[in-house]
């Protein structure tokens, strides 16, 4: 990711984590100060988010009023799935350590870090503990009833910072975004997540369009959804349809899009998959198979909560 896109991710993640969506707006100055961004870096990233339709905003700079759209939530979810699973504060602390450690100063004392980062004790200790738990930093031995007196980024931590916290060996997990190998024969379908897997059937554009038309039809007839929520879902449907019609669709992105649709309207995917599959003879397109997998998991998770 470029610096602009990285900063855009951090801004969007801050808005998502603090629920600045829907009618909840946030000032540009609040985000910029929280992320310690220069006015120039903030403006460039803000422009990126607006141009990509990831957020709505009025005015610009510190006086801007921003709100994250569904496309921005999808953007954050997708990018986060490609990164090591640690908090924003832990990432910031790791970057601080990487910048301040030298050959003759491998341990940075906690009082110095808290002062430079302007964090209170709770925020600092939480970020420290995450880095230690994830094996990215080492603590100075405890003494004098102090939890620990300093922190040192280890080789794995330095590597994580250099790679901008991107996963180097991603876990095999549909939620974290592996490629998905799909095989289909009639009514018997199988989906297996795995690195380097491939899709073994051609994508039929007409069948894909019918499937997404059915999703839109279901959205329009959902009485429990507000107009704004329907528009948000349609934006995600549009993004997923564009991806599904590519020569080599990104299965990871499709999974993230369908997960977001399932979260906003749990029953829509199941009904749309059933309706679209009924008229298809032979292998199902990959988009429908991924949607089927997501809807089945959403249904199973809902049962567990009962």
Task: For the record, give the distance between the C-alpha atoms at the N and C termini, rounded to a whole number.
Answer: 41 Å
Question: Roughly how many Å is the radius of gyration?
Answer: 22 Å
- Going across the major beta sheet, what is the strand order? 1-3-2
Largest sheet: 3 strands, antiparallel
* Anisotropy-based shape: elongated
Q: Please tally the β strands and state the result.
A: 8
Quick structural overview:
The chain is mainly alpha-helical and 306 residues long. The protein has three domains: 3-81, Arc Repressor Mutant, subunit A; 88-162, Arc Repressor Mutant, subunit A; 174-305, no CATH class.
Task: Describe the protein's architecture and organization.
By secondary structure, the chain is mainly alpha-helical. It folds into 3 domains: 3-81, Arc Repressor Mutant, subunit A; 88-162, Orthogonal Bundle (Arc Repressor Mutant, subunit A), CATH 1.10.10.10; 174-305, no CATH class. Helix content is 56%, strand content 10%. It has 13 helices and 8 strands. Strands 1-3-2 form a 3-stranded antiparallel β-sheet. Strand 2 and strand 3 (65-68) form a beta hairpin. Helix 9 (205-220) runs antiparallel to helix 10. The protein is elongated.
List keywords for this structure.
mainly alpha, Arc Repressor Mutant, subunit A, 3 domains, 13 helices
Task: Walk me through the topology.
Blueprint: H1 3-17, E1 26-27, H2 28-35, H3 39-51, E2 55-58, E3 65-68, H4 70-81, H5 88-100, E4 108-109, H6 110-117, H7 121-133, E5 137-139, E6 150-153, H8 155-162, E7 180-185, E8 188-193, H9 205-220, H10 227-244, H11 251-264, H12 266-278, H13 286-305
Antiparallel strand pairs: 1-3, 2-3, 4-6, 5-6, 7-8
Helix pairs in contact: 1-3, 1-4, 4-11, 5-7, 9-10, 9-12, 10-11, 11-12, 11-13, 12-13
């Amino acid at each position: 990711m470029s610096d602009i896109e990285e900063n855009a991710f951090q801004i969007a993640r801050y808005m998502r984590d603090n629920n600045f969506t829907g009618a909840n707006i946030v000032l540009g100055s609040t985000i910029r100060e929280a992320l310690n961004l220069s006015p120039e870096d903030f403006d460039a990233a803000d422009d990126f988010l607006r141009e990509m339709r990831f957020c709505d905003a009025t005015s610009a700079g510190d006086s801007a009023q921003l709100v994250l759209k569904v496309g921005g939530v999808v953007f954050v979810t997708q990018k986060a799935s490609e990164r090591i699973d640690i908090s924003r504060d832990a990432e910031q602390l790791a970057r601080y350590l990487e910048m301040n450690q030298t050959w003759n100063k491998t341990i940075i004392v906690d009082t110095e870090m808290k002062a430079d980062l302007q964090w209170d004790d709770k925020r600092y200790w939480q970020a420290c503990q995450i880095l230690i738990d994830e094996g990215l930093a080492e603590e100075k031995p405890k003494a004098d009833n102090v939890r620990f007196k300093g922190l040192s980024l280890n080789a794995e931590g330095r590597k994580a910072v250099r790679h901008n916290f991107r996963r180097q060996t991603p876990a095999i997990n549909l939620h974290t975004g592996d490629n998905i190998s799909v095989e289909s024969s009639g009514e018997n379908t199988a989906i297996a997540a795995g690195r380097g897997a491939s899709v073994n059937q051609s994508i039929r554009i007409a069948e894909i369009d019918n499937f997404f038309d059915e999703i839109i039809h279901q959205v329009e007839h959902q009485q429990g959804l507000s107009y704004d929520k329907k528009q948000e879902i349609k934006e995600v449907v549009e993004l997923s349809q564009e991806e599904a019609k590519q020569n080599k669709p990104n299965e990871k992105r499709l999974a993230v899009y369908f997960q977001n649709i399932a979260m906003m309207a749990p029953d829509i995917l199941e009904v749309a998959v059933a309706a679209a599959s009924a008229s298809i003879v032979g292998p199902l397109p990959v988009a429908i198979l991924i949607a089927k997998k997501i809807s089945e998991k959403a249904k199973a998770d809902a049962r567990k909560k009962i």
